[in-house]
Amino acid sequence: MIFFISDTHFYHRNIVNLSAFRFEGFENRILENLEKILTERDILYHLGDFTWHGKDKKGFLKRWQALPCRKVLVKGNHDEVTSSVLPIYFDEIIPFFKILDIRGKRLLLSHYPALDLRKKRRYIDRICRVRWLFNFYRCDHLVHGHVHRNLAGIHCGCFLYGIKCFNVNLEFTGYCPVSVEEVIKLA
């Protein structure tokens, strides 16, 4: 089975203050859920923003490494800082996007949405590139992260471009991975 997650933000101490939907111990919740679900036959696509640094004082990265599945990272904006340690934790690292063709549906995987409705956000060039890629490859669905859940209810604006999307940021998924079956149901 194929699964997707995004924005684990391991060791990002301040994210609890930045998001009303993060809590002390969120890293353990993520790992507990992954440990219950994943098997050796699975592929887990992590759509960016894996860890804040490579120092593993609490053992989160070691637990990640022990997950029995194949792990693929599609890099996000925070993954540039930790590029040197990422090969330890992933079987494959993809710089910006991946196309998956599954049961007649074409999925574009990227960290970035086709539009971010939040004000004062950077990465406009990357977001525009996602829209271009989606149309160029004639995708049916965009699977992304980057946009965090917030109290204002401002999320991605992919629908404004007629793009069906699924935001797999863990704040939207109950800190669980999303199966490809769930994504295809919406596509």
Mean pLDDT: 90
Strand portion: 15-25%
Computed structural class: alpha/beta
Strand order of the largest sheet: 4-3-2-1-9
Largest sheet: 5 strands, mixed
Specify the overall morphology: globular
Helix content: 10-25%
Write down the secondary-structure element order: EHHEHEHEEEHEEEH
Q: How many helices in DSSP terms?
A: 6
Number of strands: 9
Report how far the terminal alpha carbons are from each other: 17 Å
Return residue spans where pLDDT drops below 50 for at least 5 consecutive residues: none
Instruction: Return Rg in Å.
Output: 15 Å
Short descriptors:
187 residues, alpha/beta, four-stranded mixed beta sheet, 25% helix, 9 strands
Structural commentary:
This protein has 187 residues and is of the alpha/beta class. Helix content is 25%, strand content 20%. The chain contains 6 helices and 9 strands. The strands form 2 sheets. A 5-stranded mixed sheet has the order 4-3-2-1-9. Strand 3, helix 4 (86-89) and strand 4 form a beta-alpha-beta unit. The longest helix is centred in the C-terminal third of the chain and has 13 residues, at 124-136.
Topology:
Layout: E1 2-5, H1 15-18, H2 26-37, E2 43-46, H3 60-65, E3 70-74, H4 86-89, E4 92-94, E5 97-102, E6 105-110, H5 124-136, E7 141-144, E8 165-167, E9 178-179, H6 180-186
Parallel strand pairs: 1-2, 2-3, 3-4, 6-7, 7-8
Antiparallel strand pairs: 1-9, 5-6
